[in-house]
Amino acid sequence: VGEITKLKMATERQSAEICADYGPALHRFFSRRAQNPSDVKELVQEVHARYVKTVSSATPQNPKALLYGIASNVCKEFLRRARRNPVLTDSQIASQFAEFPPIPPRNDPCIAMEARSELDSYFRLLPKTHRAVLVLTRSEGLNLAETATRLDLSVHTVKKYLTESLATIRNAQLAKEQS
Amino acid sequence: MTCNAKEIVSHELIADIVAEAAEWFIRLEGSSEADKARFANWLTRSPRHVEEFLKISALSHDIAQYTLRATTECSSPDAAAEPASISILRACHS
Questions:
Q1: 3-class DSSP state for residue B2?
Q2: Whole-angstrom Cα distance, residue B94 to residue B91?
Q3: Which residue from A97, A104, A135 is facing B88, i.e. has the nearest CB?
Q4: A113 touches chain B (CB under 8 A)
Q5: pTM score, two decimals?
Q6: What ipTM is given for this predicted complex?
């Protein structure tokens, strides 16, 4: 048991030395691939942890090759994760919003009865033409020009009525929330 | 400034943000790259802008569902319970 402990301690010491020797090189290696300094630090630590775990079960013939092999795998995994979860810039997020306005998920595919009755009361706040514009664009899927033609309005007026309708209903919701 | 005055200012500010969010939501339908850049600028100016844009987006979705459902229930003989949108829709088609 004493021999095993001694061997284990020697292995751990050797691992620590290898990691200390190649730490700066690993740091440079990851700095070229990851932009965030905290990511670099984590990646270096991950390599050290995997190296220690590997050498605790088998003594490597070429510690440097093993260390760089692990670093290469860690790097590949990091880049794969980064591609899967890209960090978006503000303008990219805005573009996504513009093209696909997000819709909060709902448990029930249909609007709850209470929400429907609430919407009905808000709907009644709107002038008739505003309501018609909402129904034609939101429910019937007509575009602004088609809606304008159908209601004999200008596209500018359709846009204005839509904007006013959404703002009126949202303000009514806010007033209810605050009361 | 009294508390009431503060509340009034705050309500006015929020109403402005709501109006802007609604305007952006509609303007983005067929928007240009320049519009998208201006929208990005507006969106990142305040978390409240993001919140209100999301609320308007959800509201538009809810209205679509509400009006669609109301249209499919149009044949209901219960005239007293007729949603407000139906009479308008009927008027549009007449």
A1: coil
A2: 5
A3: A135
A4: no
A5: 0.55
A6: 0.74
A107 min Cα distance to partner chain B (Å): 13
How far apart are the CA of A177 and the nearest CA of chain B, in angstroms? 13
Three-state SS at A48: helix
For residues B40 and A91, the answer to whether their CB atoms sit within 8 Å is yes
Give, for all 179 residues of chain A, the pLDDT tens digit: 566 666 667 667 777 777 777 888 888 878 777 777 778 888 888 888 888 877 777 777 777 778 888 888 888 788 777 766 665 666 666 666 666 555 554 555 454 566 677 888 888 889 989 998 988 888 777 889 999 999 999 999 999 999 999 999 999 999 888 87
> In chain A, whose CA is at the least distance from the CA of B71?
A139
> What secondary structure letter does DSSP report for B78?
-
Cβ contact A123:B85 at 8 Å: yes
